[in-house]
Amino acid sequence: MKESLVKYTEQLKINLTEDQLEQFQTYYEMVVEKNKVMNLTAITEKEEFALKHFADSLSVVAAFDGTSYLSERALNVIDIGTGAGFPGIPLKIAFPNLKVTLLDSLNKRVLFLQEVIDELGLTDIEAIHARAEEGARTKLRESFDLAVSRAVAAQSILSEYCLPYVKKGGLFVAYKSGDIEEELNASTKAIGILGGKIKDTVYITLPDSDISRSFVLTEKIKPTSGKYPRKPGTAKKEPL
Question: Is 55 helix (H, G, I), strand (E, B) or coil?
């Protein structure tokens, strides 16, 4: 696991300490063990896990053209629909200066994430149980510099889930794959309604693989109307 992770992260120009590598190793072991009793991931083989979960989570540095945006600021970051903690926990391990909130709708996943946080000795990170639409009606609303999500949903739907959390001037970065041009064209109106504007789309290939990844960077240019997000389930049934 460690050798593979070093190989991948070096190509991303991320330098991990031995302590950080140990944290990734422990995190991997905890996910694989918990996966025996709870469905967290279909990927459990070490090398594949290192690439498709850890390196993929960290590859967002390409969206910022380097590590400085994440490493040189005390950014307040939220990972929406975090699941087993991706990309939030890998980002926190690699960039300890970040303040991270992990949001997930399944309480037993949130309890597992708290176990990971405690075991790894991470600080300035919390796991919260809430649906995206509900969490955005709390103190979390418009309080983050950066929102990230690897959740699978159309960009217009994902934007309604995520943009309400981002403060004016902040960014929402969606992890995407495949051809997304049509999806982005269809999302422009919704993103505008929600107070955002697509700033850039960055396409990469994960290290030592033919796996393509794209990052959609949406800038928050004005506050989101109090009408959004709508009630749970509405965004998916009736996209903006």
Answer: helix
pLDDT tens-digit profile of 79-110?
999 999 999 999 999 999 999 999 999 999 99
What residue type is 145 in one-letter code? D
DSSP-assigned letters across all residues of 57-124:
HHGGGGGGTSSHHHHSS--EEEEET-TTTTTHHHHHHH-TT-EEEEEES-HHHHHHHHHHHHHHT--S
Distance from the Cα of residue 224 to its chain's centroid: 20
CA distances, 104 to each of 15, 24, 26 (Å): 29, 21, 21
Whether residue 166 contacts residue 136, with contact meaning beta carbons closer than 8 Å, is answered with no
pLDDT at residue 179, as a whole number = 81
Cα–Cα distance list, 221 to 56, 69, 97, 186, 194 (Å): 28, 19, 25, 19, 9
Q: What are phi and psi of 101, to 5 degrees?
A: -115, 130
Query: What pTM did the predictor assign?
Result: 0.96
